[in-house]
Write a structure and sequence with these properties.
303 residues, alpha/beta, Rossmann fold, eight-stranded mixed β-sheet, five-stranded antiparallel β-sheet, globular
Length: 303
């Protein structure tokens, strides 16, 4: 059970039957798109135990991959929900200023509560009245925006870095490609996952997505009627900056296949091409490549 699940269960009351019903109602509302936000405390709790672990886990993974070396002192959390992305960022960056933008006042109120409880030294603002921030993040929220160009403009004009995370589905990836084209036309620098600014080389039924393995608590399994102790969260993302950076050779865009004595890799290179490569034990980089995971960057051309 993660830190937020423990807090919710201890301080906000807990009825597994009520929360399980709320989870079912939340799922039905999500599929029908007839509800925005949460109707009550039990739906907040249902989210904390069923979706928060995955979205938080993805945020943490991307922070470790791309953000740790950056000077981030302020963040604009667009569609913050219960503050998942801000909670993840505060784990790694001290004394952040967090601006929460969320149309569900109940969720935003809980976001502020959670953030101040775990990180009492930060400043939390429940509005977007700011001049500039270091990082603007859309964590599973841009897909809910109809006039996304206006929102992207508002964010991009007042931030150094822009991170967008979406579910790893073909439909959400198509939306990200539109955002990619839009921001590249505005002279933004695309830092990740692409190592290039050329047309996406993935064709037909293929799309750029990655995966994070998330542990399930007992309550998580109960609410989802699941038997496995983990789930795999598929996600897509893009990270933009106002400043350029040196590019790596490429990024691994599918799960490596390790066989006896060799590893098969699918790499999107800095030339905007998909490279299928097999590295055997005789390859200079074999020991490193054998440990490579889906989503990792390849620093240099394979030798």
């Amino acid at each position: 059970m993660n830190f937020l699940e423990q807090y919710v269960k201890k301080h906000l009351g807990w009825s597994s039957l009520l929360v399980k019903k709320a989870y079912g109602d939340l799922q039905q509302a999500y599929r029908s798109k007839q509800q925005v936000g949460y109707t009550g405390l039990e739906q907040i709790q249902a989210y904390v135990f069923t979706r928060f672990p995955a979205t938080y886990g993805v945020c943490v993974k991307l922070i470790k991959q791309h953000l740790l070396d950056l000077n981030i002192h302020s963040v604009l959390d667009w569609g913050s929900g219960i503050g998942t992305a801000s909670l993840a960022l505060n784990k790694y960056f001290e004394n952040l200023e967090c601006f929460l933008v969320e149309q569900d006042s109940r969720a935003k109120s809980f976001a502020a509560q959670f953030l101040k409880n775990f990180y009492p030294n930060i400043n939390v603002y429940q509005h977007d009245d700011f001049s500039a921030v270091d990082l603007s993040i859309f964590s599973y929220s841009l897909g809910e925006v109809s006039d996304w160009q206006t929102v992207i403009d508002k964010s991009w004009n007042r931030t150094k870095y822009l991170l967008i995370i979406e579910p790893g589905t073909p439909a959400h990836f198509k939306k990200l490609i539109k955002v990619r084209d839009y921001l590249l036309a505005k002279k933004a620098y695309l830092w990740a996952p692409c190592c290039h600014a050329k047309l996406c080389p993935l064709k037909n039924d293929d799309w750029c997505h990655f995966s994070a393995r998330i542990d399930r608590s007992k309550e998580h399994k109960n609410l989802k009627n699941a038997s496995r102790g983990f789930e795999n969260e598929a996600y897509s993302y893009m990270l933009f900056s106002k400043d350029p950076k040196s590019t790596d050779f490429g990024r691994v865009v599918s799960s490596p296949r390790i066989h006896g004595g060799h590893v098969d890799l699918k790499i999107c290179t800095n030339q905007g091409e998909i490279l299928y490569s097999t590295a055997g034990k005789s390859a200079k980089d074999y020991k490193t490549l054998k440990k490579t995971e889906w989503g990792d960057s390849i620093k240099h051309e394979l030798l």
